[in-house]
């Protein structure tokens, strides 16, 4: 593959470079690098470790780690870029290797032009970047006997918040843990790829784990899964225990997960979830749980008089939820559930909600969309899967704050919080750690998945990673 030598605007002033200069690679999130200018070398080279390809075959990308300060292995900058070529390069000591080539803007003294750089391990070299003659445009002169002809920069920038705020969004490698080819999964893939990321759908049930102290791994279809920047869990209720174990493994490796295993586990167990809400003083319908069949009368009394709700702990999408209109009906339902040895709870029925609830979609620290779900045909359950209708709704400040507090109580970065409008304020019915996107996006007209990717990018964008020096010493 042949690439033209980059050229600059003729109106730009002549740049005089010494054999050593300070430069920036802004698109890689590297605001300052000290480089060796070597006209004897044809190709520029950047010190990179953990080099790994990803992306589609028609548009391959490479991710890598840069240590911008020589001798500081504890400071790491994660980078990624499109691959423009793969070349055989012979170094000054006569060794030949195949290197990935990327193209990125180079900035010196306020002037910027694109250059091609090969990625290689330059560990032990005094300069972590070599600037070859291909990168030196026709209006650049080199004075081999001089150094720092252009303004010097400082490594101090890597110790400030500037790097995080100034660093560009890089292409990410993201795993979606899902067993279903549904609207939500397809949207996560399409929106992620539109933003230039690589999104891979992983069947949670086909993952298996190597659990050890030194090198924990996740395997899939006979191969070790690569490093992901982020994991978006879409764990079905039927495999919650195994799915959360897989997420814990990713957490052990150090991968950022949109929702953590602990929050998913707590939200899926309805009894546990109500205890979390109660501990955080978040409004919910009066709820009671018991194991002994002798306590039926007292159990009903704890939540008030009929009508009331009897709900299986493992119920999803409105299934396993029964409205008992009278005390006698409630006793019959409870007796039947106990005969099946099913775990359930009894809950006060909020009559004034009139078969309507509010689904608030929380991402990060914001409610990004809200819809009102209305039951069909006199049903008290408003779930869309059971035929309920969804319409956009304007929520109150109190409802917004309740939804945010509920999501934070479970440590969830993404949650569907279901609220009832009662005479005494909003009551949380459920906190869903894998909310569907179709009903919310269709009814509200909001790009919910796009907002989710905003959160993912904000969490895992390039930023200095300082490893503990003790950990570094133990590796050497």
UniProtKB/TrEMBL annotation:
Example GO biological process: SOS response
Coiled coil: none
Domain ATP-grasp: start-end pairs: 274-457
InterPro entries: Asp_endopeptidase, ATP-grasp, ATP-grasp_RimK-type, ATP_grasp_subdomain_1, Peptidase_aspartic_dom_sf, Rimk_N, Rp_bS6_RimK/Lys_biosynth_LsyX
Protein name: Probable alpha-L-glutamate ligase
Keywords linked to the UniProt accession: ATP-binding, Ligase, Magnesium, Manganese, Metal-binding, Nucleotide-binding, Protein biosynthesis
Family according to the record: In the C-terminal section; belongs to the RimK family.
One GO cellular component term noted in the UniProt record for this chain: cytoplasm
Cofactor(s) for this UniProt protein: Mg(2+); Mn(2+)
Gene Ontology terms, MF aspect: ATP binding; metal ion binding; ribosomal S6-glutamic acid ligase activity
Organism: Primorskyibacter flagellatus
């Amino acid at each position: 593959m042949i690439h033209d030598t980059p050229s600059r605007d003729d109106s730009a002033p002549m740049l005089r470079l010494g054999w050593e200069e300070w430069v920036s690679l802004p698109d890689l999130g590297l605001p300052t690098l000290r480089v060796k200018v070597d006209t004897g070398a044809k190709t520029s080279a950047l010190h990179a470790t953990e080099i790994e390809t990803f992306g589609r075959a028609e548009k391959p990308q490479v991710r890598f780690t840069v240590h911008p300060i020589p001798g500081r292995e504890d400071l790491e900058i994660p980078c990624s870029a499109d691959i423009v070529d793969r070349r055989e390069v012979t170094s000054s000591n006569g060794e030949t290797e195949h290197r990935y080539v990327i193209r990125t803007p180079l900035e010196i003294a306020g002037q910027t032009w694109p250059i091609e750089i090969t990625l290689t391990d330059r560990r032990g070299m005094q300069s972590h970047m070599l600037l070859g003659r291909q990168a030196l445009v026709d209006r650049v002169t080199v004075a081999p006997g001089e150094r720092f002809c252009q303004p010097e920069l400082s490594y101090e920038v890597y110790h400030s918040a500037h790097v995080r705020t100034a660093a560009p969004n890089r292409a990410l490698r993201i795993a979606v843990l899902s067993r279903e080819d549904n609207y939500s999964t397809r949207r996560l893939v399409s929106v992620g790829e539109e933003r230039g990321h690589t999104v891979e759908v992983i069947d949670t049930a086909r993952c298996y784990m190597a659990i050890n102290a030194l090198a924990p791994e996740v395997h899939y279809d006979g191969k070790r899964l690569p490093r992901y920047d982020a994991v978006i869990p879409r764990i079905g209720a039927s495999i919650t225990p195994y799915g959360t174990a897989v997420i814990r493994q990713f957490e052990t490796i150090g991968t950022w997960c949109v929702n953590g295993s602990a929050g998913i586990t707590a939200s899926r167990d309805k009894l546990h979830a109500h205890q979390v809400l109660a501990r955080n003083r978040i409004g919910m319908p009066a709820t009671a749980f018991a194991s002994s069949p002798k306590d039926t009368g007292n159990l009903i009394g704890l939540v008030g008089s009929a009508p009331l709700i009897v709900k299986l702990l493992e119920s999803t999408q409105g299934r396993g939820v029964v409205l008992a209109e009278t005390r006698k009906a409630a006793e019959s339902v409870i007796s039947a559930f106990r005969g099946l040895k099913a775990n359930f709870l009894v809950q006060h029925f909020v009559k004034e909600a009139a078969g309507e609830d509010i689904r608030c979609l929380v991402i990060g620290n914001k409610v990004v969309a809200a819809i009102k779900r209305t039951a069909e045909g006199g049903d008290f359950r408003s779930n869309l899967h059971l035929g309920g209708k969804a319409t956009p709704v304007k929520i109150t400040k109190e409802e917004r704050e309740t939804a945010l507090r509920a999501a934070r109580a479970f440590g969830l970065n993404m949650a569907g919080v279901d609220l009832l409008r009662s005479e005494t304020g909003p009551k949380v019915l459920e906190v869903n750690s894998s909310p569907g996107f179709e009903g919310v996006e269709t009814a509200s007209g909001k790009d919910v998945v796009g907002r989710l990717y905003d959160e993912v990018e904000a969490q895992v964008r390039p930023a200095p990673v300082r490893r503990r020096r003790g950990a570094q010493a133990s590796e050497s």
